[in-house]
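User: Please predict the structure of the protein below. I'd like the answer in structure-token form so I can feed it into my own downstream comparison script.

Assistant: Understood. Taking the following sequence of 509 residues as input:
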Amino acid sequence: MGDIEKRPHGVSETEEQFRLLVQGVTDYAIFMLSPTGMVTSWNPGAERIKGYSNAEILGQHFSRFYTDEDRAAGAPALTLATAARDGRVEREGWRVRKDGSRFWAHVVVDAIRDETGALVGFAKITRDITERKEAAAALEKANAALFQAQKMEAIGRLTGGVAHDFNNLLAVLSNGLQVLAMQSRTPLDMKMIEGMRRAIDRGASLTQQLLSFARQQPLQADVYDLNALIREFDPMLARAGDRTTHCELRLHSGRALALVDAARFEAALLNLVVNAIDAMPDGGAVTISTNIIDSDREVTATLPAGRYVHISVADTGAGMSHDVLAQAFEPFFTTKPAGKGTGLGLSQVYGFITQSGGDVTISSEEGRGTCVDLYLPSAEANEGVSIPAPSRTERVLLVEDEPDVLGLASELFRSIGYEVVAASSASEAAAILKDRSDIDVVFSDITMPHGISGIELARLVRSDHPKVKVVLTSGYPLAALRAQHGTLHEFAFVHKPYRLADLAKALRG
């Protein structure tokens, strides 16, 4: 009897239990609206989520929970109209608390009708799912970053393989031309040979650009103060512009030490500045800035927490669309007219920075300019790398599995005074070394499709024939080969396609 006496007059036991249930819920905002959208009831969950007390909100229109943009678009009225027509409406969107902060809400509105079917109001349930939305957004961002990294890795591997094979073709042409040049006498012959040589040089330059993107370009890295490098290179950067554009430096006050190949860092910087100037046909400013980042959380999608030198190149140009931005690092992608660009500028920057242990990001908005951010691991002053010295010899055991390369390379070696013993595989070369004691140097390609590799042959020579010197060659760069085979500092290395001067230096230097 006591419970019945405490119950409001005219309220059944079921209604009272429902009221107590609603009032006990704090994770959901549960409240009633009049047919015109006025708040007529308010539970503690609504007060916790939205910030209004019962006294503050009763009699107020529910549209105050919507953003200005949604109110201007008529979203509150549309919600009630849809619920009245269909009986129920479910939405997700931004809502506004009393203090002005926003949260992502899941909302359900049910129409309430009496026994005659007349609309008497709405029941509204709101849940704060901001954390779930943020987690979903973070997962989507991580998946997008993973997809981009996998795509760039796949393109890099394909590009590196194509560049290696192309280098072999260029080696055949280059070696053949050099042999022909020694035999030709007429000015016309020499003019034609020189034209072909320039074409081969351009092809070799293209493969170096591709290998740079594929992170397979040999780097001559040392510790440099990037601020000093940029200041010294500033006159060259300034000449890249014209009367309507100018370059500004905003460099960190201290030293910005990083382990880099100085020449390639300058080339990357020039690439970015030239791109920025091209994006400002009506003039503008390119700003190069540096600072030191010491972060206890990941710096980019691929860089963990740590200390980094941050270099940014920002312009006030046309900016990029979302679709262009997504492809900006891909080799041969360009928005420039035919003949105005190779599409390898940003891909070279990407390859060089990532091969140096860093990362590159781009932010851009159409009509508001572009900013390219480079991140390189901060270095100490005593870090550095060593460069192996070439070897010298009189008699060469030439090991090459490509018949065309083997034949022309043999002629090239003979043309500079060396006796050549040819072998088409590393296994054949090992057998020759067992039978002959007059070999002074082994000149071998590293990659062999059958039997032992050139690396294994080199180590066999070092172990069983310590007086025989070894020079290795490959279309793949030294950095990639070291990653696959371990340190190769004990052997001289010549990159394909090699020229006469390269061979002379390696063999006689």
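That's the full token string. The longest strand covers residues 102-113.
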